Amino acid sequence: MDFNAAKLFISVVNAGSFSAASDRTGVPIATLSRKVNELEQGLNVLLLERSRQGVKPTDKGQQFFEQARLGIELLDDAQKSVTSAHRLQGKLRLSIPPNFSLWWDLLIAFQQRYPDITVFCHSSERVVDLFADGVDVALRLGDLNTDDVIAKPLMTLETLFVASPELIACRGTPETLEEMARLPVAAWESLNQGLFEWQSGSEKVKYKPVFSSNNLQGLIHYALSGKAVVELLDFSAKPWLESGELVQLLPHQPQKKVTLHQVYARHKYPSALVRAYLEFCTEWVGRLS
């Protein structure tokens, strides 16, 4: 069996189409199609169902994909380890939440340690499909609601309520969530979210934002301009609190805690690049505490 043909077949299945696989691998579509055809002829079995929408593996193709992928990845790692003078090299594909500024310093430090690793970082509120989107590791906040991944808890973040001193001077300092809900509020909202509610201990308060967005910079701008109260993750609020441009509200209320996870595919053996990245993240986050 042709090792390279099997490797390209796995790339096509992961990408979902020959064109997407060509973009990711740099191999021409015609070459990908020819190598997969040769693999099918050699195995005497149809591996892919082809359509205008893309490709998907047949039952036999899925079986081959699952059983061959681990071996291919291990051989690929072995090949890289002996041809790179023991220096990790390759491309790491990551996904992080939008506006997650905490991670930029981590990625710079990671590439300083591993200068031969290039990084593609996709940032979106959409939950990516690790296989279909070809993502090695995703960073996710809060509940995961899936059994298809391995989730490694990395750190716990807190949310803070903040506002400008000007807004507080004009409207007064709230002492409870209910009082704060009477102030103008700017809130995070995605296309599918319509419920706005704060909870602290047993206290729950619904509120109606004057402005909502899935853009963190817009929310921070409203807060800095004295137009609204905003709930931010602690690392996002920190520079503005230190400069005095924002102040924390209800500091004695129990803060909402959010778990940050590193997520990778359950059925995919983590490559040497992924293992190095996971270990580095744990080490880097440990230095923050």
Automatic annotation (TrEMBL):
It holds the Pfam family LysR_substrate. SUPFAM superfamilies: Periplasmic binding protein-like II, Winged helix' DNA-binding domain. The keyword Transcription regulation applies. GO terms for molecular function: DNA-binding transcription factor activity; sequence-specific DNA binding. It comes from the Bacteria. GO terms for biological process: DNA-templated transcription. Keywords: DNA-binding, Transcription, Transcription regulation. The keyword Hydrolase does not apply. Signal peptide: none annotated. Residues 1-58 form the HTH lysR-type domain. Belongs to the LysR transcriptional regulatory family. This is LysR family transcriptional regulator. It comes from Silvania confinis. The lineage of its organism: Bacteria, Pseudomonadati, Pseudomonadota, Gammaproteobacteria, Enterobacterales.
